[in-house]
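Risk register update: the risk of archive-format incompatibility is retired. Evidence:
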Amino acid sequence: MSIGTFSGLALSAVTAATVQAGPTAQPAPTTETRQPQATEIVEPEPIEAYAYDPEGRRDPFVNPLRRGTGLRPPTERPPGLPGLGINDLSLRGIVFSAGEHLAVIQSPDNRTYILRGDEQLFDAVVKTINAEGVVFLQEVNDPLSLVNEREVLRTLQGQEDGR
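Archived output:
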């Protein structure tokens, strides 16, 4: 007997085994006679949130070249003086009035504001105003920095150039 395909070979081997065993042999079970097995549903284990304990080392998952970016969600700035950042303003003059120094600043949209001591800006607080300039206390948004605040001195343009 010549068998041309593999499936035909398997079929002829089963029929030959049945013929050799005789009529008392049980036929091989088919897919209809087998009981379907219940599938077990496995719940995945919950994934733990990432927490890094630096112990004095830097976090390897924070890009050191882009420090301070993407760490805080962008916030809507309020209008007027509380919405001005320290890098947005330019100092135009200092006025001595009623026993105190006042600073005249200009915003990027060419609006002029008067600053007094302890006034709050978007990212800084006015620390002192004197005849030389204005000292701001700015918050630092760098997670890798050891300081949270820094002092920034803004002077008049003529005084910075040494004129």
